[in-house]
UniProtKB/TrEMBL annotation, chain A:
Organism for this UniProt entry: Emericellopsis atlantica
Name used for this protein in its record: DNA sliding clamp PCNA
Keywords, in A-Z order: DNA replication, DNA-binding, Nucleus
Family to which this protein belongs: Belongs to the PCNA family.
Residue ranges of every copy of the Proliferating cell nuclear antigen PCNA C-terminal domain listed in the record: 127-256
GO BP, sorted A to Z: error-free translesion synthesis; lagging strand elongation; leading strand elongation; mismatch repair; regulation of DNA replication
PROSITE patterns found in the cross-reference section: PCNA_1, PCNA_2
GO cellular component: PCNA complex
Cellular location(s): Nucleus
Matches recorded under Pfam families: PCNA_C (PF02747), PCNA_N (PF00705)
UniProtKB/TrEMBL annotation, chain B:
Domain Rnh202 triple barrel positions: 41-117
Descriptive protein name: Ribonuclease H2 subunit B
InterPro entries per record: RNase_H2_suB (IPR040456), RNase_H2_suB_wHTH (IPR019024), Rnh202_N (IPR041195)
Function field: Non catalytic subunit of RNase H2, an endonuclease that specifically degrades the RNA of RNA:DNA hybrids. Participates in DNA replication, possibly by mediating the removal of lagging-strand Okazaki fragment RNA primers during DNA replication. Mediates the excision of single ribonucleotides from DNA:RNA duplexes.
Polar residues: compositionally biased ranges: 240-262, 398-413
Superkingdom of origin organism: Eukaryota
Main localisation: nucleus
Residue stretches of biased makeup (Low complexity): 1-25
Organism annotation: Emericellopsis atlantica
Annotated coiled-coil segments of the chain: none
Subcellular location: Nucleus
GO biological process: RNA catabolic process
Pfam families: RNase_H2-Ydr279 (PF09468), Ydr279_N (PF17745)
């Protein structure tokens, strides 16, 4: 039996919104530590991994491991019925056919309830090791989105070069080429803190990625004001959004190798 | 007798079927005979003493009617009848001037008596023990003619009476000698069947027959069997193999025991077959043509098959065919040719089934199934697509060359 109450329906609305454009159907694996999700896109080159820790909910109760297989488009439709500041409660039986979603207005004068049919989804789970990345850039999520969308206008792929000089996003396409370079910029000034760029570099990295996928990841911009991009040579790129209290939304993308278009 | 319709209907001696209706007429009718009369064409050679007797059929061992004449031997009956679809009757007039009388017979059939070699009648008992013993027929004992006669089925058989005529016994034993080794034991002759003699007898009969095969048989079983599929024409005529011979003439020329035995005349059956053959045998280019020797062998085989199917029981036929292998007539050339024809036909059939539109109907059901499945699949796909976000759809178009699958970076759990 699962029962998870979330003070702000907003969080799950945004998370589901950002995932639904990458995967179609996926399992929400619920256990006593929280609700986790791992899914790959159709081409299996990108992976999304979500963790909503039990602490994010109040209260959270899950006696057994329950897999809630949902179609994310359908879930989006249901979640659209919730206001951002509604209180959301997820409920499911131990072997559920449906997941129950209840939206309460913060003033407690309107309660709406939806049952979403579940489906059986066969999904392979990948074990993702904790990796020490050669370069990790933490920056404003909107800035990252801007870089990606701007460069996507130039080319299909972007090469990310991390060196001691900074981090350079460059795209080379049919109409020309463009690049954005970011330098380490850390201020403690609260006003400009959101523009901070923090680069942790242990060795230079240069990799190429599909911009379409990166733009797709940027749909998660609204879930967090900052994003961390982690790179190492010849491993997938990690784009991580922190959801607070140990919860996260992470995207992995395989680099383009041996193909400098 | 006036040959008008009305007069015929009111004919005083109209038999069986018309009796109840005619009772209201002003003519008084004679009592109907129990069985309707039958017409026979009898051989001139048969003497006055000739009798219609019942003897076991040499092939089936079922009692059948034969005409036996003490002097000239045995005759079998062949029923000639019009096809059932063409109702006919006999109208018979006597020719004597003193009193003109006529009669109708509702069944337009008649029986022709034709000479039969009595050796076939005796073959079951002669060959019986040799076949049972198989190959070591040498050990078979010589037996007297009477012993063989005794071995024939006696039920419904008039053989015993026939044998009381001295002439007929001589005739039978003379014919027996034609296929047997004989030994004189005192005043009696003892017989033992000899397969070589039997085979050569059959072959000589077949050879005579093959020289005068009816045109319909020639077309159906000789020309058609040897015909290779045409190369220039797409629609090769459907071929019948020679083995079907056993059915067609058998039904046509049976010696009937009772009148309920219904069969069409052999002439009628084969006539219809012949017309259908005509349509197919257009002048077309054939892949291979049989040589004259091959045609001759096929004729001989057809004739032999006919004789065997008609007069020799299946078991004995088998035995005779085995003996045929060691005879001086070799069918290997024919067999080779037929194998080649069969091969060509298989090829033609395979080619035809590809391009034959008339077979389309047969596949329709399968097509329906496939179409339905396709439709279902498409609907499912459509539903899936409806539940697919635009982002997912867009990502499908992304060029992912050079990108390895994530499962190559991360281990599966």
């Amino acid at each position: 039996m699962l029962e998870a109450r979330l003070e702000q329906a907003d969080l799950i609305k945004k998370v589901v919104d950002s995932i639904k454009d990458l995967v179609q159907d996926c399992n929400f694996d619920c256990n006593d530590s929280g609700i986790a999700l791992q899914a790959m896109d159709n081409s299996h080159v990108a992976l999304v991994s979500m963790m909503l820790k039990a602490e994010a909910f109040s209260p959270y109760r899950c006696d057994r491991n329950i897999a809630l297989g949902v179609n994310l488009t359908s879930l989006t439709k249901v979640l659209r019925a919730a206001q951002s500041d509604d209180i959301l409660t997820l409920k499911a039986e131990d072997t559920p056919d449906v997941v129950n979603l209840q939206f309460e207005t913060s003033t407690n004068d309107r309660i709406s309830e939806y049952d979403l049919k579940l489906m059986d989804i066969d999904q392979e789970h990948l074990g993702i090791p904790e990796t020490e990345y050669a370069a990790a850039i933490t920056m404003s999520s909107t800035e990252f989105r801007r870089i990606c969308t701007d460069l996507a206008a130039m080319s299909e792929s972007v090469s990310i070069d991390a060196s001691k000089d900074g981090i350079k996003f460059s795209a080379n396409g049919d109409i020309g080429s463009g690049s954005v370079t970011l330098r380490n910029n850390t201020t403690l000034d609260d006003k400009s803190k959101k523009d901070n760029v923090e680069i942790n570099l242990s060795e230079p990295v240069s990799l190429t990625f599909s911009l379409k996928y990166l733009v797709n990841f940027c749909k998660a911009t609204s879930v967090s004001s900052t994003v961390t991009i982690s790179l190492s040579n010849e491993v997938p790129l990690l784009v991580s959004y922190d959801l607070g209290s140990g919860s996260y939304l992470r995207f992995y993308l395989a680099p383009k190798i041996g193909d400098e278009e | 007798m006036p040959r008008t319709r009305t007069a015929k209907a009111a004919a005083p001696s109209s038999p069986t079927a018309e009796t109840p209706k005619a009772s209201s007429s002003k003519y008084t009718l004679e009592a109907t005979t129990t069985a309707s009369p039958k017409l026979f064409v009898l051989p001139k050679a048969a003497s006055k003493e000739a009798k219609i007797v019942t003897l076991p059929n040499p092939r089936t061992a079922k009692p059948s009617r034969y005409l036996v004449c003490p002097q000239t031997g045995f005759y079998e009956f062949t029923k000639i009848a019009a096809p059932k679809s063409v109702p006919r009757s006999w109208l018979i007039e006597t020719t004597s001037d003193s009193q003109r009388s006529g009669q109708t017979i509702s069944n337009a059939e008649f029986f022709i008596a034709s000479p039969l070699d009595p050796v076939f009648l005796l073959l079951p008992s002669l060959a019986d023990s040799s076949i049972a013993k198989g190959s070591d027929d040498k050990k078979k004992l010589f037996l007297s003619g009477d012993d063989y006669f005794d071995q024939l089925p006696t039920e419904y058989s008039h053989l015993e009476e026939i044998l009381q005529w001295t002439e007929s016994k001589t005739v039978l034993e003379k014919r027996m000698a034609a296929i047997c080794d004989t030994v004189d034991a005192g005043d009696e002759t003892m017989f033992r069947i000899n397969r070589e003699k039997l085979v050569s007898l059959c072959l000589s009969k077949a050879r005579t027959l093959s020289g005068s095969l009816p045109i319909s048989v020639e077309k159906q079983f000789v020309a058609k069997a040897l015909q290779a599929p045409v190369v220039n024409q797409r629609r090769a005529p459907v071929q019948k193999s020679a083995s079907t011979l056993s059915e067609a003439p058998d039904s046509g020329t049976s010696t009937p025991l009772t009148e309920t035995l219904e069969s069409q005349s052999s002439a009628a059956t084969i006539e219809t077959a012949a017309t259908s053959v005509d349509q197919d045998t257009v002048e077309v280019e054939e892949a291979i043509k049989p040589t004259e020797d091959v045609v001759e062998l096929q004729r001989l085989r057809v004739a032999l098959d006919f004789i065997c199917d008609r007069y020799i029981s299946p078991a004995v036929t088998q035995w005779v065919k085995e003996g045929l292998a060691s005879s001086n007539v070799q069918f290997s050339a024919l067999d080779e040719y037929l194998a080649k024809v069969a091969e060509l036909r298989a090829e033609a059939l395979a080619a035809r089934s590809l391009g034959d539109y008339s077979r389309k109907h047969m596949r329709d059901e399968d097509d329906d199934d496939a179409r339905e499945q396709k439709k279902r699949k498409m609907e499912e796909e459509k539903r899936r697509k409806q539940n697919q976000s635009r982002g997912v759809r867009d990502l499908k178009k992304v060029n992912t060359t050079g990108m390895m699958k994530l499962s190559s970076f991360f281990q599966k759990k």
